[in-house]
UniProtKB/TrEMBL annotation:
Residues 95-165 form the MULE transposase domain. This is MULE transposase domain-containing protein. It comes from Linum trigynum. It comes from the Eukaryota. InterPro entries: MULE_transposase_dom (IPR018289).
Length: 171
């Protein structure tokens, strides 16, 4: 048992320290554990930044992706849909729910979730959109991405709480 094996099983750093200290009767400190797990992550990502690696991996797996960056190469808009979610959406596109969190993630950016409803009244996730603001233009972009995924289909109902600029974008 070593740090790399434990990290691969998504064991938290504090638990890695406890396990190693118990097994080897040693006194690893958290700085050692964090430094080693950071090095392992860097190797796993092949030297790429986590966001870049995620985009490449999602594309490899067949996700629908659209991403926009600002002039400092920071993500301002990211739209992700799993291929199976798209298949379900194209079969059951009649009702789409759109909801936004309020900047509860690490980067303090709103996260928009698109949800579909199946004929047996079960919800399914359509996709996730990370946005940098809640302006009319941003929500127009979100709706345009949904339209691209839907192709020639149009939902009968788009359910939302009209957060931010979404209400204006729907008009």
């Amino acid at each position: 048992m070593n740090i790399k094996e434990l990290e691969a099983t998504h064991t938290q750093a504090k638990d890695i320290r406890s396990l190693l200290n118990l097994k080897y009767d040693a006194h690893h400190n958290m700085t050692q554990i964090y430094n080693e797990t950071k090095k392992i992550m860097h190797e796993r990502l092949g030297g790429l930044k986590p966001m870049r690696w995620t985009l490449i991996e999602a594309q490899r797996l067949g996700y629908f992706i659209d991403c926009e960056f600002d002039d400092q190469r920071r993500v301002t808009r990211l739209f992700l849909c799993h291929p199976e979610s798209i298949r379900m959406l194209l079969a059951w596109y009649f009702v789409v729910l759109l909801d936004s969190t309020y900047k509860t993630n690490k980067y303090k950016q709103p996260l928009v979730q698109l949800i579909g409803v199946s004929p047996v009244k079960k919800n399914f996730s359509i996709g996730f959109i990370l946005i940098s603001d809640e302006t009319k233009e941003t929500y127009a972009w979100v709706l345009m991405q949904l339209k691209i995924v839907l192709g020639d289909r149009t939902p009968v109902a788009l359910v939302t709480d009209k957060a931010g600029g979404l209400g204006v974008s729907l008009q």
